[in-house]
Amino acid sequence: MNTIDTQLGYGALTNGKSAVESARISSEKGRFEALLGEMKESSGIGSGISSSQVVEAGRVNGDWTSGFSGTFTSEADKKSLPRGAAANQANQHGKQQTIDRTSKLYEKSLELENYLVKQMLSEMRKTVMKTNEDDNAKKIYEDMLYDEYATMMTKNAGFGLADQMYLQLSNGGANDNA
After folding, report:
1. FRET partner for 103 with CA separation of 20 to 30 A, picked from 49, 69, 133, 139?
2. What angle separates helix 104-125 from helix 161-170, to the nearest 10 degrees?
3. Can you give the pLDDT at residue 5?
4. Are the beta carbons of 162 and 110 closer than 8 angstroms?
């Protein structure tokens, strides 16, 4: 220890700033721990419940996108006719094919169609001239916005890609050899 610390004390050198800073950090830490405690109590996290039980299967905690779970719930959705491109091929062998839009297989087909639409939109977005490319927050927001655009287009545009995938996978490719 040098002589300045023993004669004046550490607080005298920093004018008490370190003690004030330490008190502020301690106060913030206490408020943060109290907030975490409230969150654990209200959500059930930390009480023997895993995160897979807190969120729906296949989704990540904090996932902000709207997704396709629960999009189709009516009785009519269980036996609906194909749309879009799939409508042209659904009856090519004379047999009326229907789609169960409430099934997990159809939900996963929609997710794949959504991915393809998102890729298409991303490529289209690259052709737009931009003036201020340095703003990372803007890039993140635009990416999230285009994710939602892709989801809405998949749900409402009726491309028929998900319908085609569903028909192909649910029949096990039976129409390929016919």
Report:
1. 49
2. 140
3. 47
4. yes
pLDDT tens string 9-47: 555 556 667 777 788 888 888 888 887 777 666 655 555
Which tokens belong to 90? 């659904």
Beta-carbon count within 10 A of 119 CB: 11
177 pLDDT tier (thresholds 50, 70, 90):
very low
* CA gyration radius, the chain: 28
| The pLDDT value given to residue 58 | 56
Distance CA 23, CA 5 (A): 21
How many residues are listed for the chain in this entry? 178
How far apart are alpha carbons 127 and 140 in whole angstroms? 18
- 86-145 pLDDT, tens digit each: 777 656 666 778 888 888 899 899 999 999 999 999 999 889 887 766 778 888 888 889
Amino acid identity of residue 85, one-letter, is A
